[in-house]
Design brief:
single chain, alpha/beta, Nitrilase/N-carbamoyl-D-aminoacid amidohydrolase, 6-stranded mixed β-sheet, 15 strands, globular
């Protein structure tokens, strides 16, 4: 398979899970009709981004894996013959929850999972209250469309995560994401944040010679506590090639579905002219495992 057609689904969500899920499924169908064999959904796509507050009742939204979402989306994957990347609030055990990406194979079965490793704790992003850091490491998930390097949102700021999953054989870097502006920030600060977000991920593409697929949510979601002015998710999902070149960029403020063609041979071609893996000084990087070099 020299080319891979990838569908991205960017959407605004409501409090109604069934409405959100049906919206996602319609978009998946659209992608499949346009020839996509892989479709990526955004972070926590079944509901609102609930981490703006710390509320124990929210844990009721957690679900087991396998469970209702993997069954429902698995049926869609099998019907359409596509591989899906989901993002779910996983209930692993009482009091133990994860932010988990699930890859569904085109036969509807679970190909693998990835539990988000880096967990933020910032105003309006109180994820440490809900999510236990992942314990599966940075390993790609093998599918019929290749080895998928799935990471989640806050992971996208860490070059170590991208490097390790690339070193393990990932053929694509995939980031389901929920990121936006705290609406009281200035326009200048908002633009700096977006540019930083896109730039670092394009840097991961360049450093590892891999395509990057970053799928973000859009829409405004108020802060239930009223402590902040809420989050305006900035959308602008994008796909970059292995030299960081933008292959697709979505708008900021609307639901958006697109299918992007990725030339799989370009990873090999780019790594031949920019052999970063060859030239890494692995004998000199030991101190990267430290928190800080005092």
């Amino acid at each position: 398979m020299e080319t891979l057609r990838v569908g991205i689904v960017q959407q605004a969500n409501s409090t109604d899970r069934s409405v959100n899920v049906q919206k996602s499924i319609r978009a998946i169908r659209t992608c499949a009709q346009q020839g996509a064999s892989l479709v990526v959904l955004q972070e926590l796509h079944c509901g609102l981004y609930f981490c703006q507050t710390e509320d124990t009742s929210v844990f009721d939204q957690g679900e087991v894996i396998p469970g209702p979402s993997t069954e429902e989306f698995g049926q869609v994957a099998a019907e359409l013959g596509v591989v899906l990347v989901l993002s779910l609030f996983e209930k692993r055990a009482p009091g133990l929850y994860h932010n988990t990406a699930v890859v569904i194979e085109k036969d509807g079965q679970i190909a693998g999972t990835y539990r988000k490793m880096h967990i933020p704790d910032d105003p309006a992003y109180y994820e440490k209250f809900y999510f236990t850091p992942g314990d599966q490491g940075f390993l790609p998930i093998s599918t019929s469309v290749g080895k998928l390097g799935v990471l989640v949102c806050w992971d996208q700021w860490y070059p170590e995560a991208a490097r390790l999953i690339a070193m393990a054989g990932a053929e694509l870097l995939i980031y389901p994401t929920a990121i936006g502006y705290e609406t009281s920030d200035s326009a200048e600060e908002q633009e700096r944040q977006f540019q930083s977000w896109q730039t670092i991920q394009r840097g991961h593409a360049i450093a590892n010679g891999l395509p990057v697929i970053s799928v973000n949510r859009t829409g405004f979601e108020p802060d239930p506590s009223g402590q902040t002015a809420g989050i305006q998710f900035w959308g602008q999902s994008f796909v970059a090639g292995p030299q960081g070149e933008l292959l697709m960029a979505a708008p900021s403020d609307q639901d958006y579905t697109a299918v992007v063609e990725i030339d799989r041979q370009r990873t090999e071609d780019v790594r031949r002219i920019w052999p970063f893996f060859r030239d890494r000084r692995i004998d000199a990087y030991g101190e990267l495992t430290k928190r800080y070099i005092d």
